[in-house]
Amino acid sequence: MAPERTPLRRIHRRATHRNKAINRLGAAAVEFALIAPLMIMLTVGLMELGRMVMVKQVLVNASREGARRAVLPNADSATVISAVRSELQSATVNTADIIVTPSVLATAAAGTPVTVTVSVQANNVSWIPNPMFTLNSTMQVSTTMRKESL
Prior knowledge:
The chain has three helices and three strands; from the N terminus they run ααββαβ. The protein has about 150 residues and is of the alpha+beta class. It has one domain (about 5-145).
C-alpha cells in the first residue's frame, strides 16, 4: 500500500523545487560575473580595432588626395597640406603630421616623384582614454606620384 500524500509532503516538494530554482539563478549570476568582463573587453577591443582600420583608410585616402593635388603643374605645398587636412576632418583626425617631398613643388620638373606622407599617433585617434595596445605606435601612410607637365 502506497503512502498517502499529505499536504506537508506537497509543501516540502514545492519548497525544494523553489530552492533549486534559486540555486540555478545564483549559478547564472556567478557565470555572468565571470564572463561579462571578458565579453566587454572583447567588444571594446574589436571596436578599437575597427577604429584603427578606419583611421588607416582615411590616412590612405588623404595622402592619395594630397598626392593628386601635388602633381598638378601649379601646385604648392600649402594647397596640398590644406587638401590633406580637409580629408582628415571627416574622421576627426586633427593631429596628423603631413610631409610633402620635395617641399618646393613649383620648381619640380615634370616626371619628378612627389611623395605625400601622413602620420598620426595611434593614441591620438583612439576612442579608449588610455589604450594599452596602441600607446606608442604611429600609423603612417605615403603616396608617391609623378609630377605632371604643363
